[in-house]
Amino acid sequence: MSELAIKDNSFLRQFETRENGHLAKIEYSSQERKVFLTKLVIPEDITREGFKEDFIKAVLNHIQDQNLRVVPTSPQIAGFLRKNRQYKEMLPVGIRI
User: For the whole model, what pTM was predicted?
Assistant: First the structure.
């Protein structure tokens, strides 16, 4: 697995990466040092096994590097956090998934 290059497009409020020329994105909103991950969009043309998990991990690591908390409002991202408990400390106090 190679590390994905994540771009924070703050104008469109989305994290982006390209895979074989196709743009995958996670839309977000931010408030008071929390990042709300609202929507995961991966084009059908991206078929690499494990891409979705790699992309979510890269975005979470990017957020973690900025010492921000994460609130997953996207069901796919919430499901990922349920399975990958090592990211649990990124949740704000009182948020359970």
Answer: 0.93
